[in-house]
């Protein structure tokens, strides 16, 4: 593949690292004090309660509502782990699939808010492209250690 400046594998690494920085920004901008005190889960509960699809409400009530503190920590630290994993290229295929799943969950939860959908769709697309292009081969700990070759 011919490109300007970098080769194709290096551009895929740039895409992967950029996605990782996006996840880190998602983690950084959270008000951690409010988030871990239940603010994020209360907000999500309000979204789920008014959701147009019953399975979203039912899923929230089954999985999230009984464990609000655990879910708050899980979401926040998943975003941090995804960001670090993608920036450093560590366990990259796992991070890409997990990020794709998390973005799809966010997409379904926020289906009525088209402003959010652009971000979630773009991050999901980048995850898929970076996964199928095996973006962990260049500029990554996975590549340095010979993981996932």
How would you summarize the topology of this molecule?
Elements: H1 8-28, H2 32-36, H3 39-49, H4 54-64, H5 68-88, H6 92-109, H7 114-132, H8 141-145
Helix pairs in contact: 1-5, 1-7, 3-4, 5-6, 6-7
Report the principal-axis shape.
elongated
Report the span from N to C terminus. 20 Å
Q: In total, how many beta strands?
A: 0
Poorly predicted ranges (pLDDT <50, ≥5 residues)? Answer: none
Oligomer: single chain
Mean pLDDT: 93
Number of helices: 8
Give me the secondary-structure category: mainly alpha
Percent helix range = over 70%
Helix-strand pattern: HHHHHHHH
Strand content: under 5%
From the alpha carbons, calculate the radius of gyration and give it in angstroms: 17 Å
Name the descriptors:
149 residues
Quickly describe the structure.
The protein has helices spanning 8-28, 32-36, 39-49, 54-64, 68-88, 92-109, 114-132, 141-145. The protein is mostly helical and 149 residues long.
Descriptive report:
Helix content is 74%, strand content 0%. It has helices at residues 8-28, 32-36, 39-49, 54-64, 68-88, 92-109, 114-132, 141-145. It starts with 7 loop residues before the first helix and ends with a helix. The chain is an all-alpha fold and 149 residues long. The protein is built from eight helices and no strands. Helix 1 (8-28) runs antiparallel to helix 5, helix 1 runs antiparallel to helix 7 and helix 5 crosses helix 6.
């Amino acid at each position: 593949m011919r490109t300007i400046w970098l080769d194709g594998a290096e551009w895929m690494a740039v895409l992967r690292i950029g996605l990782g920085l996006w996840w880190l920004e998602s983690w950084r901008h959270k008000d951690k004090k409010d988030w871990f005190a239940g603010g994020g889960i209360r907000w999500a509960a309000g979204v789920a309660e008014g959701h147009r699809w019953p399975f979203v409400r039912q899923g929230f009530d089954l999985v999230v509502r009984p464990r609000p503190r655990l879910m708050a920590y899980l979401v926040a630290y998943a975003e941090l782990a995804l960001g670090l994993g993608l920036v450093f290229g560590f366990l990259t295929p796992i991070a890409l699939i997990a990020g794709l799943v998390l973005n799809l969950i966010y997409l379904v939860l926020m289906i009525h808010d088209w402003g959010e959908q652009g971000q979630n769709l773009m991050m999901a697309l980048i995850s898929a492209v970076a996964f199928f292009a095996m973006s962990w081969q260049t500029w990554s700990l996975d590549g340095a250690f010979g993981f996932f070759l």
